[in-house]
Protein 1
Amino acid sequence: MEQLAVHQEFPRPFALPAVPPRCWTVTGRTRSPLARAVRAGSVRTGPAALAVVLGTDYRPADDALLLDAVARARADGLPLALLHEGAGGISLLRAAGSEDRALRFASVQIAARTPSALAAAPAAAAAALLTDRLGGPAQRGEVLIDGQGRSVTGHWRRLELPPGEGPLTDAEPAAGHLPGGGVPSDLSTPAGPYAWPGAVPSGRSMPTGPYAWPAAVPSDLSMPAGSSSRPGPVPYDPRGGRPVGPVLVTGGLGGLGLRAAAVVGAVTGARVLLLDVRDPGELTSRERRVLERVRSGPGGAEVLAADVTDPAAVAEALAKATGGPPATVVHCAGLIEGGRLDGLHPADLARLRAVKTDGLRNVLRATDRGALRQIVAFGSVISRRAHSGMGGYALANEVLRRETLRSAARLPGCAVVVAEWSLWSGAGEAHRMGVVKDAAQMGMPPVPLRPGMDALLAMLRRPPGPGRAAALVVTGAGDRGFPEPAAPAP
Ligand SMILES: NC(=O)c1ccc[n+]([C@@H]2O[C@H](COP(=O)([O-])OP(=O)(O)OC[C@H]3O[C@@H](n4cnc5c(N)ncnc54)[C@H](OP(=O)(O)O)[C@@H]3O)[C@@H](O)[C@H]2O)c1
């Protein structure tokens, strides 16, 4: 029986309704061209609204800017529009909206600083605040303005995963067993120009190359029928089982990281590097058995004690590791913490983001990028759907998604995937906290361990290249909250 649903977001043109211009109060990066454009589009007699403006990359100061904007919008009873050039932040606003149903919010991203995009942004923000056609208030509220000033929104398409054949993670794996045979065609769908919205590279000029947004978006925005991509290189020879480099798993002693290490190590035969702040002594007896199995796998394993947020510690740990530079990075390190936004401080947001985003950045800085063949970063579906009390975690995962997809531009030989998982059963923090059953009763079936790990293996087999970098949302099949029901056609 089908246990998972995998979705990817694709852009489609979206005609925003004409609405009266707003009288904007602009906060954030107030001296940027985008902020100037919002002020230029402001009409004194229009209905009042707040605009918080961010840039291309999410910066540490943005935590305070977003929290302040949310607090001010709530205190003054004003709608809040986020306008940005790739930094993101809508996930925090969604959480704020589910914690305070009176808050109206929307997000507009411009793909490039063209005169047309800048001119269109304030009207798009005003319209996005009013229209209900951008999906339910819990989820979407997001518009992208292309270089020609046209508005685009996202819609979800389901991808089919082939049936899993991977080893059970807590059972004895068949050594050298290679699940699935070839690259699963449905996961190899070209994603580049469609990887909305995080794939717009950083930089202040019009994106070029595979991200030449929106020129690269075909007019019908659909995938050619029967399209499939050829397999990309894998970091090991499937016949001889010879790995070309170790697999580095950050958070490798965590619930999911340890299982990922066991599965990927067994399947590839590669040496496994488990990098974590957790001490192996903290593992349960079941987890210790999994670790022993990883250690006795074909390539062996090493536990590297390092905090991913500490660049020097990561560099030192990786310099000491044996087996050559990693060919694969599975970035599982993460902090999972809740808290309503009105009780959170910028430092709380920064801490949650650091493990995810700084963590991956530090790992990439400390590794030989030329040797890297695959990266899978563990994100969360919470960056896509509102969840009260999880705004900080949602933001950390949204920024991780955006930065990871952007990093693909600097990793031409590498397959880059952000796996935006729903909660897992069988292992991991949600399982440990005992919340899986309640979530299933609320319409969120979990990602069971085995199919989830099969999905991970399928992601590791995606072909390389920035044009194929993708964020894939993986939920249990039949999730009632994701994707949210489609917005009515414009
Ligand atoms: N479990 C789920 O249902 C679920 C769903 C969606 C996404 N995810 C994501 O999947 C990943 C793994 O989740 P999990 O459930 O396996 O969580 P977990 O059991 O808590 O594992 C995370 C591991 O990362 C370690 N870690 C935390 N901060 C670190 C740092 N600064 N440097 C190095 N290691 C650090 C943790 O150590 P400490 O325990 O000592 O902090 C822990 O060993 C996370 O990124 C999470 O956001 C999980």
Protein 2
Amino acid sequence: MFWFKKEEVETDPVCNMKVVKEKAKYSEVYNGRTYYFCSADCKEQFTKEPKNFIA
Ligand SMILES: [Zn+2]
């Protein structure tokens, strides 16, 4: 999935996988920023403790 243009992908903060924004099923807004996740599991982990995953 690395052939996508840079602005079309976001990094899943939980597992560091690249997530294509347009296809992302899981996202969460935190501190005014939207984070994208590869799975419901990653989203759930982020929702529990967002500070663990963002600097
Ligand atoms: Zn993930």
